[in-house]
Design goal:
By secondary structure, the chain is an alpha+beta fold. It is built from 21 helices and 12 strands. The chain binds protoporphyrin IX containing FE (HEM).
Length: 483
C-alpha cells in the first residue's frame, strides 16, 4: 500500500513538473518564435548569476512584457522607445490611468469620467480651435502659473524666496532640523497664502505621512489593508474642502492657479468636496518633490566639504543679508547647476505609467490596445553605456565637464513629451536658493554616521523618498560673513 502511494505521488509530481516545464518552454521559448512581433515575456525564473535580470534576458533593450497579478504590462527599456512612447500621445496616454486614480481617490466613475470628456459649452473651450477635456485644462492652468512670466515671478519672488530665507534663519540653538517634518511648508504657503496653514497647522505633517502610504492608492489596495492611507487621505481632502468653503475675501493670497481651478470646477457644478479631491492630485504634484530634492542635495553636500566650499564660493555674489539674486544662481553658477542635475539623475528613479488607446508599434514590437506600458526612468539614469562605470555614484561635476549630457535622451528627470513637468522652473529655482542660503549662512557638519538610503520599495512619482529613519543630522554653525 505504501509503495503504491509513493508511486502515485511520484507520478503526480512528475506530471505536474512536466506540465509546468512544457508550458514554460511553450510560453517563453517556442511561442515567441511564432510571434516575433510581440514583445518577449519576462520568464518568472531567470538564471542570472552576476548579470542583472534584464541584461541577461534582453541585451537588445527591446520592449518586453511581464504578467503581474494576472495583468500583462509592457516595459520600455531604451531611451529611444521611451521617447517614442511620449511621441505617440494620440495612441498611448496617461489619461485612462489618471481616470482610474480619481476613482481610487473617491470620485464616482461618472464624476471621474466627466473630467476626461470634452465639454464644448465650458467657458474655457469657447472660441478654442481645439477644445480640451477638464484634465487637460488643469495642465494648461499649471503652465500659466509655472512657465516663465509674471505669475511664476510672483510665486517665486513674492513668496517662495522670502519664505526660504526666513526658514533658514534659525534663532541660535532653537531649531532641531533643516528639513522639518512639521510646521510651515513653503510651497503650500506660496499656493494658498498663510490662511491654509493657519487653519491646518498639521497639513505638512499629514502630507509627509501621505508620502509614506500613497503607494496603497497607486496599487489600489483593498480598504482592509489601507486604513492608514484612507485616514490620511481623508484628512488632506477634508482640509482642502474646508479651505474652499471660506469666502474668497478671506483667502486673498492664494495663487491664480487655485482660484482658476476652483472656478472651472464650480462652473461644472462640482462642490467643495469634489473640488478638494481633484485639487489634491495637483497639491501632491506641487508639493511632493522639491523637498526631497533639497534633502538629497543637502545629504550629498554634507558629505563633501570640498564640494561645499566650491559651491559656497560660486553662489557668494548672489547672497546678501535678507535677499538673494536668484537670476545669478540660475545663470552664473554652473557647478551648482551640475550638482542639481547629477542629484536629479541619481534620485529620479520612478517608473511612469501609460495605457495603449490603440495597438501601437514601439521598438519594432506590436503593443496591444488596452494594456499598460511602464517607462522606468531608473533604467535610463543608471545606464552604464551612457553614464559610464559606477552610474550609481554621485559625480558632481559630470554636467559641468560635459554640459551636453543635460540634453541627453537618457536624462529625463522631468519626464518628456506633452507631459513634461511644468514645475521644473520653480523646482530648480527653489533648490538653488535653498542651497545658496544654507551654504552662505552656515558651516555644516554632519552628525549622522550613515548616508541615507533611497526607499525604492515605495513607488513615488519623481524624486525617490529616503527610508524611514534615515534622516540626516546636521550641525549648523552661523558663518556671519554676509554683508
Ligand atoms: C524636483 C522636483 C520635480 C520633479 C523631479 C518632477 C518630476 C516630474 C515628472 C517626471 C513628471 C512626468 C510624469 C509623467 O509623465 O507621468 C512630472 C509631471 C508633472 N509635474 Fe513635476 N516634478 C517636480 C516638481 C514639480 C513642481 C514644483 C510642480 C508644480 C508646482 C510640478 C508639477 C507637475 C505636473 C502638474 C505634472 C503633470 C504634467 C502633465 O501631465 O502634463 N512638478 N513631474
Amino acid at each position: 500500500m505504501e509503495a503504491l502511494l509513493t508511486g502515485l505521488l511520484a507520478r503526480v509530481a512528475f506530471t505536474a513538473i512536466a506540465s509546468l516545464l512544457s508550458w514554460r518552454v511553450w510560453r517563453f521559448t517556442i511561442r515567441p518564435r511564432f510571434y516575433p512581433q510581440e514583445p518577449k515575456e519576462l520568464p518568472y525564473w531567470i538564471p542570472c548569476k552576476n548579470r542583472t535580470t534584464l541584461e541577461y534576458f534582453l541585451p537588445s533593450r527591446e520592449p518586453f512584457s511581464m504578467t503581474i497579478a494576472g495583468e500583462t504590462i509592457y516595459i520600455a527599456t531604451s531611451a529611444k522607445d521611451v521617447n517614442d512612447v511620449w511621441s505617440s500621445s494620440k495612441t498611448i496616454s496617461i489619461n485612462p490611468i489618471a481616470e482610474q486614480m480619481h476613482v481610487a481617490a473617491g470620485l464616482s466613475k461618472e464624476q471621474a469620467n466627466f473630467l476626461f470628456q470634452v465639454h464644448h459649452e465650458a467657458s474655457y473651450n469657447v472660441n478654442k480651435v481645439k477644445p480640451v477635456i477638464p484634465n487637460q485644462y488643469f495642465i494648461e492652468l499649471h503652465h500659466q502659473q509655472l512657465h516663465p512670466g509674471p505669475e511664476l515671478e510672483e510665486l517665486i519672488k513674492g513668496s517662495a524666496v522670502p519664505s526660504i530665507i526666513e526658514h533658514l534663519n534659525f534663532p541660535k540653538g532653537a531649531h532641531p532640523a533643516v528639513i522639518q517634518k512639521e510646521g510651515k511648508a513653503i510651497i503650500i504657503e506660496a499656493y494658498y497664502g498663510p490662511k491654509m496653514l493657519e487653519m491646518f497647522p498639521n497639513l505638512s505633517k499629514d502630507f509627509t505621512e501621505w508620502e509614506h502610504v500613497a503607494w496603497k492608492l497607486l496599487f489600489s489596495l483593498p480598504s482592509f489593508l489601507s486604513g492608514d492611507m484612507v485616514t490620511v487621505k481623508q484628512n488632506l481632502f477634508g482640509s482642502l474642502a474646508t479651505y474652499l468653503r471660506l469666502p474668497r475675501n478671506e483667502r486673498p493670497d492664494e495663487a491664480p492657479f487655485v482660484t482658476r481651478i476652483e472656478d472651472m470646477l464650480r462652473e461644472h457644478g462640482f462642490d467643495e468636496d469634489l473640488i478638494g479631491t481633484c485639487l489634491f492630485f495637483h497639491f501632491w504634484a506641487i508639493n511632493g518633490n522639491v523637498y526631497k530634492l533639497a534633502f538629497w542635495l543637502t545629504a550629498h553636500l554634507s558629505q563633501d566639504p570640498e564640494l561645499m566650499q566650491q559651491i559656497r564660493e560660486e553662489v557668494q555674489p548672489a547672497t546678501k543679508i535678507g535677499s538673494i539674486d536668484d537670476t545669478f544662481l540660475s545663470e552664473k553658477c554652473p557647478a551648482l547647476s551640475s550638482l542639481v542635475d547629477e542629484t536629479l539623475r541619481l534620485t529620479v528613479t520612478s517608473s511612469l505609467a501609460r495605457q495603449l488607446l490603440q495597438t501601437t508599434v514601439i521598438g519594432g514590437k506590436t503593443l496591444e490596445k488596452g494594456r499598460k506600458i511602464m517607462l522606468p526612468i531608473r533604467g535610463l539614469h543608471y545606464d552604464e553605456s551612457i553614464w559610464g562605470a559606477s552610474p550609481d555614484t554621485l559625480h558632481p561635476k559630470r554636467f559641468l565637464e560635459n554640459p551636453k549630457m543635460a540634453k541627453n535622451t537618457s536624462f529625463r528627470p522631468w519626464g518628456g513629451g506633452h507631459t513634461l513637468c511644468p514645475g521644473r522652473f520653480l523646482a530648480r529655482r527653489m533648490v538653488n536658493v535653498f542651497v545658496a542660503e544654507l551654504l552662505s549662512k552656515y558651516e555644516i557638519g554632519v552628525e549622522s554616521n550613515v548616508f541615507p538610503r533611497g526607499d525604492g520599495a515605495r513607488p513615488a512619482p519623481g524624486v525617490i523618498p529616503w527610508r524611514k529613519g534615515d534622516d540626516v543630522l546636521l550641525r549648523l554653525t552661523p558663518r556671519g560673513v554676509r554683508t
